[in-house]
Give the backbone structure.
Amino acid sequence: MKYVDMDNVQWQLFNVVGLESLTRQARFSDHDVVSFKQILETVKKLSDSELYPTLREMDAAPARFEDGSVVVHPVVGTTMKKLGEMGMIGAPLDYDDGGLQLPMTLFQALNFVIDAANNHVSGYSNLTFGAAELVAVFGSQQLKDDYLPKMLEGRWGGTMCLTEPQAGSSLSDVKTEAIPQEDGSYKIRGQKIWISGGDYKYVDNIVHLVLARVPGGGPGTRGISLLVVPKIRLDGTPNDVTCAGDFQKLGQRGYCTTHIVFGDQDDCRGYLVGKLHHGLAQMFQMMNSARLAVGRSAAAIATAAYEASLAFAKERPQGRRLSNGGKKDVSQDQTLIINHPDVRRMLLTQKCISEASLALILQTAYYYDLAHSVEGDEAEHYHLLLELLTPVTKTYPSEAGKRSVDLGVQVLGGAGFCDEYILQLYYRDIRIMSIYEGTTGIQSLDLLGRKILDQKGRALEILEGEIRATLAESTFAEQAQQLEEQLVLNRQVLKHLLPLAMKGEIETFLSDATVYMEFFSNIVIGWLWMKMAVAASREGAKSEFLKAKIHAMKFFYQYELPLNHGLARVLQASERLTVTESEESADLVFA
């Protein structure tokens, strides 16, 4: 079964985003297109031979808590070690830190392929990279020497530990303690829940990156510090880190989600990462990487679901076309369901969402690479684009991806609801993506409440410049005019909303932030489809592959982008039906 279109991945990398151009930057000058393609081929072979074949096995035999530890599928261990041997776990990191200095753009594409093959197993290496990245950026040389080599080899796993029973999105309520000790370490006491990859066999150690309170830091988020807390100390003795259980889930059943207890015997030690009381700001570097990874995983699941439903539609005969004056000719053979317009609408919607989601991941990663390889004002330019697009990149694939997979189930009809077909697995797996690493609501507050407002809207101005540069190349006059009108409409919406913020009516200003996220995301996706159509046109659009890109762009502009007019009406409404004067008055709304 095909789970990813490698022609599309490579075309987007080299023909749309322009991965080769990054080799002109000093940071990436050791690499070339040949090596990039070799790495892609190697990862695809691993995905074909070991990851995709075990996806359904991992779903059928979920991670389970047993004798104080979590049992997972053996492929987790073999994959961690093979990715470590290939240098893939920490590939974007500096040479000095054990990385390959690969572009983040390529790293995202590689992991997109892995995610599409088996999103249950990929989470373990993703989190290990995130934890290693934090140590590499903020850790002392001693911490780097002690922890990075084995993490990047895949012998040790990594996690990030934020959530507590009373502190989910509200991290200012974190209570885990870190008490300074005479030897420079910290005694850790507390519990963390929903910790992905928190405890499992097949690695020798788990390195937890933990948010905790050091005395003297004050209340709220200002008092939070970041610490490395290994399950096993460097001398091989236990560090009083225990797993209290594994949560059984709707989807991603092979990817363990644990309850971790630190210091139950008052003998847990942690080691400060970076500056004291600056833990949350440092953790958010890992969180932003994790958010891109979640968006990428959602895009990959949506892609695998699209490939599965497309294959089914090309093989399943049912009914007859209504092309003969609306009359069915029952003497004729049944037609394949892909020939029915409504099925094509569903498949084209899936194609538009999944392929644009990949484009969004790669474009954002490309800005990441430029922000980290150029200097001065140019670096600031790309950093602002990266910051603006990060919440969109996490949210659009997660939200639209759910709709895409849902349509995939619908294409299969009753078969899509049965275990025999893989669509139901993708349907369950993708549901968590709009919750992981900051819910859609949190991402939307970040977009409208911070990123749009930062530096008096400079990031938005820069993005508009990028969009208009694409429009200047476009030969698709009708769609180009639509996108230009959307830019104007966005300014009209903000002209209505921003005065609320200026007057201090913050709750009202942000009450429909999630609606704005959907609205703004559609504009960004419209731009990316135009960018793909321009690239296809530049190449002559002679092949069926390239013609399909232009057709999909036109479909998005006809079926998806016009939905923004309704969203704009909601955003510009004079009455906010979700805002009440007091908590008590909420009873009137739901009486």
User: Anything to note?
Assistant: Residues 390 and 504 are 26 Å apart (CA to CA). The longest strand covers residues 186-196. The radius of gyration is 25 Å.
